[in-house]
User: What shape does this take?
Amino acid sequence: MLAYALRRILQAIPIILLATVIAFFAVTWANGDPRARLATCTTCDESAYDRIVELYELDKPTYQRYVSWLGDVVTGDLGISTSQGERPVNEIFWERFRNTLLLALPAFVIVAVLSLVLSVYQAIKQYSFGDYALSAFSYFGLSMPTFFFGLVLQAIVIQLNNSFGWKFFWTQGLHDENFKELIASITLPVLTLVLISVAGETRFGRASMLEIKNSEYIRTARAKGLSERRVVFRHMLRNALIPLVTIWALDFAALLSGAVITESVFSWPGLGRMLLDGIFATDLDVVMAVVTALSIMAVLFNLFADLLYGVLDPRIRLD
Amino acid sequence: MTEPILEVENLVTHFPIKAGFFRRQVGVVHAVDGVSLAVDERETLGIVGESGCGKTTLGRTILRLEEPTSGRVLYNGEDITDASNERMRDLRAELQIVFQDPYASLNPRHSINDIVAEPLLVHGWDRKKALDKTGDLLKAVGLLPEHGNRYPHEFSGGQRQRIGIARALALEPAVIILDEPVSALDVSVQAQVINLLEDLQDQHGLTYLFIAHDLSVVRHISDRIAVMYLGRVAELADRDELYENPAHPYTHSLLSAVPVADPDLERARNRIVLEGDTPSPSAPPSGCRFRTRCPIAQPLCAEAEPEFTEISPGHFVACHYPVPPGQSLVDLVGSSAAAAG
Assistant: This one.
């Protein structure tokens, strides 16, 4: 399994390189010249112009700039942000990554637990009132656009504040002075992320559980005289988990790479916002840092899902 | 006469057909529709019939893997149809089943040891003893104890069915329902598994309810045979009596469908080919269920349901006009055609 993992990581390197090449050239060509931004800048002088040319090596062809960017990244230098006062991107990245984790981790844990519990419940009580109610909830979650649901939550909280003076949750930004403030600021964005993900995953988990519920070997398990609990947890769940694990791994990768829309709605200083701001500001090193991190995470979590398969399903040999 | 180990009285299993937005019940499948049987200890009772006649559902209902709609199942005189779930779990140590499909009936995520030892573990054995016993069971069905660490996908169909049998034997049951245990296997392997089942029956004093559609297999293994048609028992007799003096026209047609391994005889043989399809079990015909396809049906057959009557000792048949011993249905069809002409 270790050899398999190592080989997969080695195979991932060209994929990540390709992703960075595409991103680098796309950003360079689509957004044009970083110098254009200076045209509207009234306080900038000639030295700012020269500085940008120097930072981005704009006097060299694009492919040379890519190679030199890559060389820096490999040695651990993500570059300089031109839109944030020449702060090192390394510093910005880790700060933003931490902030994204603050949302992604709790959201992921809640999504995993909820989708699991709900899909088991729905499959076992198929066609019950609860099953229908949860299906309705899932369709609601699936059809609700993220930005809209985020705005609705904000509107409700603001209304509660205005009417009753309740100040439970922050609707904007990250407040981490103490634990209570932190919870108050992550609640709404986490809730938004959870609703969107849990809806789809529950549908998926329900279908997967139902398929297994009606399989022959579940009848065998009952014929052995097992308790219903044991049938559900030892026989059904373990089989139903496999498709869910993939979805979870990919979902977590997506959450980590920054939920761009949710972070924008809640003005959350995470990776998603970092990417968006970087694109608007033609801040090349910032954009490239996020894109690279994103592709590394996608590859890693796919690998993680595959390794978990091997653990869960004896028919899958990882070698 | 000794008390039968397993008795089935008027067992009925209906499945509702639900349709529409509110999933209202729009009909009922009469899968098992009033079956009565008694199985003696150490006996093999064969149950034959076409696909869809309710054999499998009967087997599952006896074990309460499907809930009966009405009727009773008695095991050693104890009514198990409304036994509590806890009691039923204990009874599963004594009433076991081997399923038809050895590919689908083993959990792909569990090792053979897990599969075979699990019934022992949940019935209170400690792990060490359960694993020893599992090794013995695997040996008893012709596998090696070392196979226990492997997974179902590493075995062939015949080996898997042996695993299914080992699993069923684990708790040393008294009765095993064999639900078409060899129909998914190829012929060379069928014989091995059948012989294994017979040996195990001798060694452990097992009682079998052998469900099959293959008449030659049933003839080989059974002491008595029940013929099912559309959820009912049409005929029940000792094996030899049934094969030599079948009384129900349906049994005649089933037996005439068995091919003979001699090309000359096979060509000369008069086969009774039933016309039409089996009626839908959601709307069985009035009177005798077989009348729509019976070559000798009379007006009475549509009006009254035939009683299940004993025509000779131990030979029961549900037919208004049973075929007399020694006569073939082909002759009767010929004479009734002549009478009509």
Observations:
- Chain B touches chain A through 32 residues (CB under 8 Å).
- The first strand of chain B starts at residue 6 and ends at 19.
- The longest helix of chain B spans residues 187-204.
